[in-house]
Design brief:
By secondary structure, this protein is of the alpha/beta class. Helices cover about 55% and strands about 15% of the residues. It folds into two domains: about 140 residues, Response regulator (Rossmann fold), CATH 3.40.50.2300; about 70 residues, Winged helix-like DNA-binding domain superfamily/Winged helix DNA-binding domain (Arc Repressor Mutant, subunit A), CATH 1.10.10.10. It is elongated, with a radius of gyration of 24 Å. About 30% of the residues are buried.
């Protein structure tokens, strides 16, 4: 960290990229040097490689491929380069795609430019940076059952899943759902098949993982 870190800016808004470059040079010229900038996703990895960049600041809203594609290409070509993703949107899915593509941090473009220096240095040091509300939202999202699973379950299936997770016996399940024990057994078997688990114990564990017992 005694030498200046080389930064590359990937943003399709030239004015924003120029302003960001000036900010880094004026506020932290002793820590950063801007190696270059590009407005094209397909040029990002080559520019990072040519500059031997320590850091890449990538805008996520870059047509037509998107900033996540630039991040993925940068990481494939030069894994050591740390990437901070920026977005003018609070779209959780967009931020998640950036992190899955290899971003080492995420900040909204609405963040005060004066506080950008510290997150950049943090990312450069090997740590991840993201706003606390985004982290909370990502953790909450990760605990939800995937959409493709929920699409296979109707309201009765979900109610049955919770009853199984709470350890109810077949007779108790039958009484709760107003069906015979024979029907309850068949319903349980069908649900286990939909969940792709071999037994009730794993069905209960899956429900716990997704936090279903905490959902009123």
């Amino acid at each position: 960290m005694n030498e200046r870190l080389v930064v590359v800016i990937v943003d399709d808004h030239e004015l924003f990229a120029q302003g960001l470059a000036l900010l880094l040079e004026n506020r932290a010229g002793d820590r950063f040097t801007v190696g270059g900038a590009t407005t094209r996703v397909e040029e990002a990895a080559a520019l990072v490689d040519a500059c031997a960049a320590d850091l890449a600041i990538v805008d996520l809203a870059m047509p037509p491929l998107g900033g996540a594609a630039a991040i993925r290409q940068v990481k494939q070509r030069r894994p050591a380069t740390r990437v901070l993703a920026l977005s003018g949107s609070d779209d959780l899915a967009l931020a998640e795609r950036a992190l899955r593509a290899g971003a080492d941090g995420f900040l909204p473009k609405s963040a005060d430019p004066d506080v950008l220096i510290a997150p950049l240095l943090t990312v450069a040091s090997g740590l991840c940076v993201m706003p606390a509300p985004l982290l909370d939202a990502l953790l909450a999202s990760a605990r939800k059952p995937p959409d493709e699973l929920l699409e296979r379950l109707d309201t009765q299936d979900r109610a049955l899943w919770v009853l199984i997770a709470r350890g109810l016996e077949t007779s108790d399940i039958a009484a709760r759902l107003y069906v015979s024990e024979r029907t309850a057994k068949r319903m349980v078997a069908t649900l286990l098949h939909k969940l792709a688990v071999p037994n009730r114990i794993e069905a209960a564990a899956l429900a716990g993982h997704y936090g279903l017992l905490n959902d009123p």
